[in-house]
Amino acid sequence: MAYLPESSTFDPGVYQLETTDPVVGGANGASNAPLKNLTNRTKYLKDHVDAIEAAYAPKASPAFTGTPTVPTATTGTNTTQAASTAFVQAAVAGITSGASVGNVTPVMDGTAAVGTATTAARSDHVHPTDTTRAPLASPAFTGTPTAPTAALGTNNTGIATNALVHSARGSYKESPIITGAFALSAGHAGMAITCGGAGGYSVSLPDYTTFTTAGYSASSGLTFTLVITSPNITITLANTANAFIYYNSGAIAVGTSFSVTTGDTIVIAPVNGAWEVISGIPASQIKGNSLGSAWSNVTASRAFNTTYTNTSAFIRAVQIDFQGNANQYGYAAVTVDSQVFQSSGSSYAGYGVYMFIQVLVPPGKTYKLSTLNQCSIVAWRELI
Predict the structure, then answer these.
(1) Is 342 helix (H, G, I), strand (E, B) or coil?
(2) With bands split at pLDDT 50, 70 and 90, how would you rate the model's confidence at 289?
(3) What is the pLDDT of residues 93-128, one digit of tens each?
(4) Closest to 274 in 3D by CA, of 237, 239, 244
(5) Residues 366, 309: contact at Cβ < 8 Å?
(6) What CATH number is given for 295-383 in this structure?
(7) Of 1-10, 47-56, 215-224, 237-246, which gets the smallest average pLDDT?
(8) pTM
(9) What is the CA radius of gyration of the chain?
(10) Which of 19, 64, 147, 177 has the fewest Cβ atoms within 10 Å of its own Cβ atom?
(11) Where in the chain is the domain with CATH 2.60.120.40?
(12) Distance in angstroms (rounded) separating the CA atoms of residues 272 and 368
């Protein structure tokens, strides 16, 4: 089966089959003549419609070429209507001529907003100076300005609040004078405290654990300075279960207390888990380079072969007097730490000879009467 050939011509008419026409098929057969006329006309019309449609843009997203034109809207129109170049030029001319330029002074700083004004700002407009705000360079604040409080021990160019200063210096603005028993607290850190009055009282250091938990440490300069202007002041510990007083960079323990007197000035700080005397006038005494100041007869509290410890801050002088048994060779020995010191003597004419031993016991060291043969203790004295 084949199709009739088509020609893009508008045939002047459509052939009418006659009653006498024979039935003849084919492209030029009489029987197909009317159909051929209609086919040619149809192709002609289609070709023309296609040519017309190709010359126009679609309504949806048209892609114009050449120089398309649109009606020019009235100045000020604000819709989705297409704007002609004439409309745009008129709008621009209105701005440059001042027709749509605002004449109100610019608004001071305030809450951020998009705005609704339809006027434009001039290129030389100036915002007013906000006198309620400080400049970045050399601001001069008034009232009660505030700032974040930095961590204790911070050392940079950040602003220091009075809370930081108070914590760092322990209210160093004053030097309190105490005249009786006194308990130091974290709030006294950084202060120079004068111990006056008649003397003879104790000053206790706070619980080391509580003190350091609050953020105080020697590394940030948080220490206690005690200026002693009265005699016989004893420095003690508030909690002897978890803290002791040390000296010489924590090498030797003084014990749970030590004494200071008129003219002394000491600085005490928390160091490596304990209280430490880090400087001061009596430092040489605390380090064990001086003797005690008063002899005491301790015979009643001392016994043979019993170990004792020098818990004071000073070198302790010990003298033990003996009497040998009659007609016997007697001797005795005292052990200090690991060193043995001995004294001996012989009796005569039925009388026991007298003898003595003197030793020096450094702070923190142990001592005991380790040997006692053919003699007895007469007196036991210590310089404390």
Answers:
(1) strand
(2) very low
(3) 765 555 566 677 777 766 777 777 777 777 778 877
(4) 244
(5) yes
(6) 2.60.120.40
(7) 215-224
(8) 0.35
(9) 56
(10) 19
(11) 295-383
(12) 32
What is the spatial distance between Cα 170 and Cα 192, in angstroms, rounded to a whole number?
Answer: 10
Q: Which residues contact 319 (CB under 8 A, 6 or more apart)?
A: 356, 357, 358, 379, 380, 381, 382
> Look-up: residue for tokens 């040998």?
324
Closest Cα to residue 170, out of 279, 283, 281, 268?
268
Beta pairing class for 224-228 and 192-195: parallel
pLDDT in tens, 34-91: 888 888 888 888 888 888 877 787 888 888 888 888 899 998 889 988 888 888 888 7
Strand partners of residue 356: 321
Closest to 226 (Cα-Cα) out of 176, 265, 274, 261: 265
Angle at 126 between CA 115 and CA 136, to 5 degrees: 95
Output the pLDDT for position 286: 44
Contact in structure between 234 and 202 (CB atoms under 8 Å): yes
